[in-house]
Amino acid sequence: xxxxxxxxxxxxxxxxxxxxxxxxxxxxxxxxxxxxxxxxxxxxxxxxxxxxxxxxxxxxxxxxxxxxxxxxxxxxxxxxxxxxxxxxxxxxxxxxxxxxxxxxxxxxxxxxxxxxxxxxxxxxxxxxxxxxxxxxxxxxxxxxxxxxxxxxxxxxxxxxxxxxxxxxxxxxxxxxxxxxxxxxxxxxxxxxxxxxxxxxxxxxxxxxxxxxxxxxxxxxxxxxxxxxxxxxxxxxxxxxxxxxxxxxxxxxxxxxxxxxxxxxxxx
Length: 267
Prior knowledge:
By secondary structure, the protein is α/β, with parallel strands linked by helices. It has a single domain (8-266), classed as Nucleotidyltransferase, domain 5. The chain is built from ten helices and six strands; from the N terminus they run βαβαββαβααβααααα.
């Protein structure tokens, strides 16, 4: 799957179908807080380039609508050091309408639950993520995609508050001044390095929910959310640092931040 974890020698791919869906979704949720970085990819092909951002979204929406019911979605959970959950597990969900396939809506809801459980450190990352996120958002939005690009990107930000597209980070200079934050080679490893830095939230605010080929929603609500999110992340960093200096345990810190920040993300 793509993006790949750093230590591929320890990867254990687990195929998830109806027979083991419940067990694997339980494990997925249980790992979310300790492995807050989620890398996701689908088996869907991206449509060709379009002349406008709105035209690109129309092409993505049409591709998702006509996609076959059976799809494969890959997911890896990592910590900021690039260590995979459960000793190297990578999930490969076989989704569809058949009795042998895992249920797409249930799996996508579990992904969203992981996003909520990983607050405040949870980060979602894709590569060429428009089709990946469109597939997830469709199932989280009652089986349909919104007709407008801005509404779709807003939903991406609602369901997955910290969402980054590796292709955007490697190529797009228009988002922020200066060079892109990632190099073209080994950009997932570089992304993990950025996540470990205290300045990550400040640097990456402009790239949040910005998908390759679709741009970012220019509606007021999303722009405001991105601004508030950056301030919230900085506040979380300061609280974490202060509590560590006072000798509080990591479990205590996670519990306190989770209960304080979770209602903000839930709105």
